[in-house]
């Protein structure tokens, strides 16, 4: 923004230079000197950051210009408005003040100079106002873009974390399922096949000598094979991924982790049918429990925390309660607000009670 | 009433009639995102609810849950920090006179003048709502008769019992025939006779067309008279609905415990086969039958016992009540420990 003011000053200086050269003023060296001194003073302003120093230099520039006006060339006064604006801008925002102050010098000038001074003042004012208004707007927009960029980063990170969690859950589920199948194959079907095989081998040996016995053994083998096929069918039928195990399993892991890291003893109790809790509800419960446990660790001075999960008929209730001091008044920090938002996203509710130790109850609706 | 108010009420009457013809049912009260903070303490936390015409709506919650604060904001006695309250479709902050004309408030702390007679008290409050002349006197008489204090209209409140004072308060609240009556813990510290009177009056008022909001921490009352209930805790509504809906949050089964003389002839399989029975168990002389709440199979169960000639000593039905619902959801009791 300052660059436009600098350009305007340069234009005015060039005008003064050409005017002086054309008018063939006697002491051209003085003009040049005034030029250079003013130039130096002005450039220094843009280099410095200290406001007081800047103000001093503004006043100095005004001084130089006045001297130049009086003794060298009256046209130097044309540069006054801009410097006056810059000086006033560091004190106040009222544009009218700028204009009035800049018009003040008119009173002290020769009549012939007044129109051109007026013109310079007016145009300088326009340029100054426009650059400052648009300069401010630009800065505001940039700040907004900045904050939006930060938010975008945060959200992207969140999405990444979510996809990571989904991926991990999938992996864990797959592992557990594979485990289950291999176990059942080993336990049931493997044995059945082996048993049936023995019976058939024995039957083969006896088919010549003792037909009756051989038939018996073959019948056994048939029975065992039928059972085996039935088992295969059941094993394959039980293909439902055990999400409830991942859910409660992960919760237990969280708690074991917590127990291991610090001295507060944590106990988990649960009742009701955990199967009907959906993955997203599990996620919310995990996050709320983690948050509540972290708070207990940081603030409560408690020695025990109990986590109770109840699946009711139409609601899930999870209460994290510690035996600490509790507080009189609950201040809603970011943690609690986070829990509220998370829970509200699935139409749930949070109750925070601090009368007997600190307790956070999460209520999530079921079904619908 | 002067001409202006006549004109206005006529206008509203036409609007109302129009809505009724078109089948729109007006919500008497609509609260959206209501919040109230006292310094750092959040008394009412982003509460939203609607009360339809003709309901007896109960606020059930422990002391300090935020019931009175919410009520005071609805009645216009307390300013909210955030949120809107609409009474009969109009914003109560913008149309405060309209809102107040249509509300009758029976506060928790008695609001009657000890140095005026009962009659004068009701007349004073009715007068505030613009009633004048013969109409005023008629309404005052009506109100006193309704609460059963017509014989006491020349007596002073200091001779009244707690219950009578409360009834006087009710009379003050109903004289101007408001559409919405709010009662804040009306039966706290009241003798049982007055209490019954109050509960009956609430029902009568409802039958006459008033919508009633009733707050209490006494579960029995709320269960007895309210058509819809909101359970409030720590400034939030944690559950809302009819009694049955609230109970069904916890469980959809109920227990019947039958004490028998001897368990010899008891056939568990036969009992289990009765429609609706989920489980049966025996505990010494007690047969515990767990059934679906949706099925009313008590008759069939008793029939079975009678036909098998098993002597029933006692029968107890154990279904969750609102206190259980509150306890299960919040982990705390409705009443202070």
Describe this structure in words.
The complex is a heterodimer of chains A (368) and B (337). Chain A is α+β, with helices and mostly antiparallel strands. Chain A has 3 domains: 2-109; 171-237; 243-365, Histidine kinase-like ATPase, C-terminal domain (Heat Shock Protein 90, 2-Layer Sandwich). Chain A has helices spanning 2-23, 28-47, 51-72, 80-89, 95-103, 114-206, 211-237, 243-261, 279-300, 334-344; strands at residues 265-271, 304-311, 315-322, 349-353, 359-365. Chain A has a 5-stranded mixed beta sheet with strand order 1-2-3-5-4, with helices on one face. Chain B has 337 residues and is of the alpha/beta class. Chain B folds into 2 domains: 3-102 and 178-247, Rossmann fold, CATH 3.40.50.300; 252-319, YebC, transcriptional regulation domain (Alpha-Beta Plaits). Helices cover 38% and strands 28% of the residues of chain B. Chain B has 12 helices and 14 strands. In chain B, the strands form 3 sheets. Chain B has a 6-stranded mixed beta sheet with strand order 6-7-8-3-9-10, sandwiched between helices. In chain B, helix 4 (118-128) crosses helix 5, helix 4 runs parallel beside helix 6 (162-174) and helix 9 (243-250) packs across helix 12 (322-330). The model of chain B has no long low-confidence stretch (mean pLDDT 87).
Percent range for helical residues of chain A? 55-70%
Strand content of chain A: 5-15%
Residue fraction in strands of chain B: 25-35%
Question: Which strands sit side by side, in order, in the main sheet of chain B?
Answer: 6-7-8-3-9-10
Query: What fold name goes in the CATH topology slot of the largest domain in chain A?
Result: Heat Shock Protein 90
Please state the oligomeric state of the protein chains shown.
heterodimer
Structural class of chain B: alpha/beta
Number of strands of chain B: 14
CATH architecture of the largest domain in chain B: 3-Layer(aba) Sandwich
- Total number of distinct structural domains of chain A: 3
Strand and helix order of chain A: HHHHHHHHEHEEHEE
Q: Which sheet architecture does the biggest sheet of chain A show?
A: 5 strands, mixed
Termini Cα gap of chain A = 59 Å
* CATH homologous superfamily placement of the largest domain in chain B: P-loop containing nucleotide triphosphate hydrolases
CATH class of the largest domain in chain A: Alpha Beta
Q: What gross morphology of chain B would you assign? A: elongated
User: What's the total number of strands of chain A?
Assistant: 5
Radius of gyration of chain B, in angstroms, nearest whole number:
24 Å
